[in-house]
Model the fold of this input.
Amino acid sequence: MSVGLLIDTTRCIGCGACSAACKEQNNLPRPIEPKTTAYTWTTVQKAAGVNVRHLCMHCDVPTCVSVCPVGALSKRPDGPVVYDGKRCIGCRYCIMACPFNVPKYQWDKAIPVVGKCILCADRVKEGLPTACASVCPTGATFFGNRDDLVREAQSRVEGRPDRYVNHVYGLTEAGGTSVFFLAGVPFESMGMKTDIPQQPLPMLTWQILSKIPDFVLLAGVFLYGVHWITHRREEVASLVPEEGIHADEPPSPGLFHLIGVWLADKRRKQ
Amino acid sequence: MNRTVAPSGRLWRVGFWEGVFGVLVLTFGLVTILRFTQGLGAVTNLNDEFPWGLWIGLDVLCGVGLAAGAFTLTAVVHLFNLRRWEPIVRPTVLTGFLGYVLVIVGLMFDLGQPWRIWHAMVFWNPHSVMFEVAWCVMLYTTVLALEFSPIVFEKLRMEGPRRLIRAFTTPLVIAGVLLSTLHQSSLGTVYLIVPSKLHPLWYTSLLPFLFYLSAIGAGLGMVVLESYLSWRAFRHRLAMDLLEPLGRAMAVVLALYGLLRFQVLRKNGALAALAHPGYEEWMFLLEYGAGVVLPIVLVAIPRVRRSERGLVTASLFAVLGFVMYRLNVSVTGMERAAGAQYVPSWMELAVSVGLVAFGFAAFAVAVHYLPIFHHEKEAAGAEAEEVLVSAESR
Done:
């Protein structure tokens, strides 16, 4: 079973209880900053008159998980995209690559790590809702089974076209996420990214990376072939002394030649 | 004559450039201390909107690219068996090796926790381009060190190890070409993951191939440049008969790259935007005009490419164009999506400039103490003969 959040911006009153609960749950230092940082994993920001929560989208096929060279980020089967600060080397590719600009860095620390919402992975594992959802006074942030959330979101949009724009943000963005947004105004006007590809982004690099083994094999054979042809030509030329241009220069002993000499030597000793 | 190495063998004499170098070393040291005690935020202009800056764009992307001459020339000489270019293989491999060492040092500054660099060997994620990059850096630096080692063994008169490495020359060169191809292209692949962030003038699915091609072009340009610089500094013979064909090869590679770039822009519609150039468009026009078109035109004119100054100028523009390409991809093209302008701090600049200065210094020291330029007895003999002939004819 995979869980997620449904965030209905038309119900949010901007009280900020979610941010405060998040700080407490994850032992993050105060104060609550206006924008998300490595120390403030979720905020409520007002844009176009709407209170918009900012937090990790917990993608189904997360870009950050695919780009991390040491596997410090991972997608848990129950939904959360979690981060292991003990593995992280600090390359910040996740910050660069995230289509939603979620991961943030501890720029002020000598030994820094990344900070991002982890969907209260420990609470979720025990069957509890996330801290933010458990304190939300209006139900604007609603925790539940991902499939139920999708159904609920779609029925709200279809049932009240006067209240909602006809889009469930997160359903197809970056190939689908575990956090969904509903809004009464266009998402772009609320400052949310709308130019994100509708397919999982990791495919963009995997289609290149997956070809490496074949490439190494083919190119290796090709290069050795080139070497063999060009040097064989020279060897043949050197057998015809008057035409050989490098006749005076002994060819450098190749690896296989040395192995051959060594084997022959060994056989002789036996 | 002050700039040449004193015949007595003394390398350093305190003059203007040595003073500049000293100040640089001091600054570099102070910034290093700040960087590792106060964190990245204290010394760089990087932030959550702009997490990669000059150290990635210049030190890593350009450092790797400009080392591309090494794999190109070793392939030309050892695989394609064009022995003519053997005399310039050693300085080129030296440049490549120093380039990679500086990339690693640059990475040590840029990584948040560089002491964990070994994690890439233990915790694997083959889906990550950065994982491929990390392995390419490690393996190719090793290959370059091995390719360079016979020069050191020669100096130390260690015949055994020298012959052992020599027996491995072909596999080493092939491994070097493969790893370089993977590494150069993977730096382009790194940016494939940001289709909504990188400006359409630079984003294309062909990024890996374009990075590879442009690196070969710039690598050849670097061979010409470094030959020229060491000729200026150490009075080595500037072998125009070897460099001029390299210049032509550079132009061919640049033309191929330029054409491909043009086709990509024509297809994705970014070309139309050039009619009303803004910040990105001007940066692109500068990169493409001065860094691709100009060097091709210069090399295409026989009188220009056969003159030392003409060839060196063309190579310089090709290398600068390459540096601009990498900086445009890593900085200019990312600024709009980030909604932030990035200008490196003076401390970031100090580290980058310091690293380049260390590179030059290390090159000078290596050339002074190791048989880089005239290593083969035959070649030395031939040179001596030439000197005799010219002395007689005078």
